[in-house]
Structure formats: C-alpha cells, structure tokens
Amino acid sequence: RVKVEAKSSVGAGFVAGLFEAASRVGVERAALLRHAGLGDAIDAANPARLPMSDVIALFEAAAVLTGRDDIGLEFARRVRPGTFNVLGYALMTCRTLGEAIEVAPHFRRLVFDIGYSEMRFDRNEKEARLGWRVVSDALPYCRSLAESLIASWYHFGRWMAGVELPLKEVLFRHAPPSDVSRYEAFFECPVRFGAVENALVFSSHLLAMPLVQADENLHLAMREQARAAMEKAFSQSDLVHRLHQALIPLMPKCEATLEHAASALGLSPRTLQRRLGEASLRFQGVLDAARKDMAVIYLRDPTLSVLDVSLLLGYAEHSSFTRAFRAWFSCNPSAWRRARGVVPA
User: Fold this and answer.
1) Which residues of 34-49 are buried (b: 16+ CB within 10 A; e: fewer)?
2) Residues with Cβ < 8 Å from 236, sequence gap 6 or more?
3) 41-60 pLDDT, tens per residue?
4) pTM here?
5) d(Cα 114, Cα 75) in Å, to the nearest integer?
6) Which tens digit of pLDDT belongs to each residue from 287-302?
C-alpha cells in the first residue's frame, strides 16, 4: 500500500508567481487551471493556501502548455518578497545572507508546509550547500517545481545582497533538459543534472555578505508578523488536516459523515460544524477534497483496481466515483492512470 503523508500546502503567493511566469510566455491563468484539471477549484478554496497536489499539477501544466522546460527559471526572474509571504520581508531585513538562511526554516511553512519536502543547509569552512529534497512517497517529484525553488533562492539572494553571488555549481537530481546552456547562463556557473539532490553550492564566505535592506527593528516586526501568520494559517489547517485523517478510515465503511467524523475528533457535530464555518469551510467540501487527494494516492498503487479505489473512497457505486473524478481531472480514472504509466497488477 502507498504511504499516506500529512497533508501539505503551499502559500498562494508562490503560486501567483507561477501564474505570472506562465502569462509572460503566453499562457493565461484560466488555461493553466483547465489543463491542471482544477477549473475554478483554487478560487473556491482557502485563498491563502493551496494543496501541494494542486500546485504540482499546475507546475506540470505550465511546463506542457508553455513548451518551456526552463519555466522554473522564468518563474525566478521576477521573484519578489511577497512570493514567500511575510517570510520574504523577514529575510530581506536580516543583517547578512547567512542570517537569512538560518531564519528561513523557522517560518518555511508559510511557503511550503511540512509533509512533501524539506530544506537542508550544510556548511564547512570552505563551502556551503543549500538544498531541497522531496521526502514524500505519496506525491510525485516535479522537476519544474524543483527548478523554480532553486532558481528563486538564487535570484532572491542576489536581490537581497544587491550584488552578484558567484556559485561554485548548481545541482539537480532530474535528467538534463535539451539545452543546458540556458541554465548555465542563468546561474553563471556549471549546472549538473542527475545529481543526488537539488542544491546551490557556494563559498562559505558569502554567508557574511551584508544585505542591502538590513533593519533590525523592521526585521523583528516582520518576524512577529510571520509568527502571527503561522498561527492564523495553521490553527485552521490543522483542524482540516485532523478531519482529513479522520475521514480516511471512515470512507471504506461508508461512515464519512459529519456525525462520525466529529465523534472521531472528540467533538460534537455542532462544534465541528461551527469551527469549519469559522474557517469558511463546509464539511462536504472537506470530504470532497479528501476524496480527491486520496483518489490520486490510491490510483498510483498498481495493486488497487479502480473499483477498489471507489470502495476505499466510500462511493456506493463505481459510476459515482467516475463522475466525481471527471469533474476533478477532466478524464476518467483509467485514462488518468494510463497517462502516468500506472499499470494495474
């Protein structure tokens, strides 16, 4: 069976950067949403956070529709503090580049929530390495997403320092594109593909580089805003995550109801309904989102038939699952599997 990960999400500011990058090369937001099978789902969801599965679908759609395997570089060219939520402003007011790198992990959930990936930083006297790797086995690795992150870190670092930041090399774990020279021109250093990780490698002395907009008082204020944003974002999303996890074992028993879910969470149905309302959510909407997320996870498991998946999601009839899946992804479950090379056992 496929391991089910903690539900992960991405700040909407980061995704806005993708819409802007795609638009600059001729692909508008509506087309991107349609190709990703999301329709108007993003606008109907919590506008501040988007599920990681949707973000991956959008990045993959952008690579296809733009015909640009370097769409991640285009994303990074106009990255701004708001791309990283209030974290971006906290970083730019740090004293040095090294301090900014140390601050980032404390508030990284504002941009990339836990569960899908992790940021790693290693250094010695001569060399520093800032890396990003996928730790989930429930959602796919996405090369355009990896490239956008690594490239935006580099570009934002140069912007904060106000000077060039020479790199020793850049590493990507995926296969090389048709034209590596575009990457070497962007990073101004050797770029190696097929590596064990995605990372920027540079001299440790760059960590002492002062930042142009360093401001101790403003930095403290931005950190306080970041803490408040974390509390606001995740007090609501933690409830949704707990409800999501409670619904998974209830679905196969056809017990994914407000009453059963509330009981599993140790709440009364009225309290659960009220708390969802405070987050501008409905129980049926959370259930549909959980079914959509789990459908993708289950369908990647070749040992499960489409009928098995339908039953695991709590659909009384196979046709009901197929209709719902078409509404989510604009294709039937079997076609979705074939497009991703999943061959049922």
Assistant:
1) ebbbbeebbeebbebb
2) 46, 278, 279
3) 554 444 567 888 889 999 99
4) 0.70
5) 22
6) 998 999 899 889 988 8
Q: Which of 119, 187, 124 is nearest to 157 (CA)?
A: 187
Where residue 330 falls (left for φ over 0; alpha for ψ -120 to 50; beta otherwise) is: left
Q: Cα angle at 149 between 233 and 193, to 5 degrees?
A: 150
- Other CB atoms closer than 10 Å to residue 30's CB: what's the count? 11
d(CA 306, CA 275) in angstroms, rounded, equals 34
Residues 77, 82, 87: CA angle, nearest 5 degrees: 115
Average per-residue pLDDT for the chain: 90
